[in-house]
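retry 2 of 3: previous attempt timed out while embedding S-adenosyl-L-homocysteine. Reduced batch size to 1 and resubmitted. Inputs unchanged:
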Amino acid sequence: MARVVFIGAGPGAADLITVRGLARLREAQVVLFDALTDPALRDAAPDARWIDVGKRGFSADSTGQQRINELLVAEAQSTERVVRLKGGDPSVFGRLEEELQALAAAGIEAEVVPGITAAVAAAALTQRPLTRRGVGRSVAFSTAMTQHGELEARRSADTEVFYMAGRQLDSLAHKLLEVGWAASTPALVVSRAGWPDQRISTLTVGSLGQAVADHAGLPTIVTVGAGAVAITDAAAQRPD
Ligand code: SAH
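retry 2 succeeded.
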């Protein structure tokens, strides 16, 4: 019986995949991979058939997703060990639900191997912990883009991390002010976290727009609030 293994590749550098993820990848006969995964991972399964289902061939809209679902099912029906390799963690903004549903509908088993999601990688790389004793008790992962392509900001946690934020940092700053973040709130912008060309900007909600030129067109997350504060500044803010 075929089984599809979803593997989180992590945010960039190939060695940020988990040991289990790498072990499953090594056994793959077919790998359906996304644009945001490191080509160096191919070395783990050089004899497998690698199929690019990233944005180039498959648009991110529902038609593109439908085609990926169909391909995944078709591959699993003809091949025993199919891997679906996704950037970051498959459970975070990875369309995992739709792909699991398509497999379940076809009676195909699945396993999900977690990966390091971009928000967590950015926190590690910038040494800005997402939670802070006393002042950072909650973290929220939000998409800055709704499914209809509209920009949306939130203030639902002490640390708010926005995915898919790169294109409109300027408008995001306005929306953040609208939902109640102060202009002086620390904001961290990280693009291509984990890759050799990663970019980091440390700003405030009010000055977020300044990062537009540096991050345009790149996979970018924006961390706002407690988790964006530099540890050197954090000691002064802790209330004990
Ligand atoms: N499953 C992925 C997210 C996929 S959605 C994860 O867990 O990380 C794609 C969005 O993720 C991008 O628009 C960007 O906001 C973010 N992203 C993915 N990789 C990134 C990276 N290396 N650096 C910064 N942001 C990244």
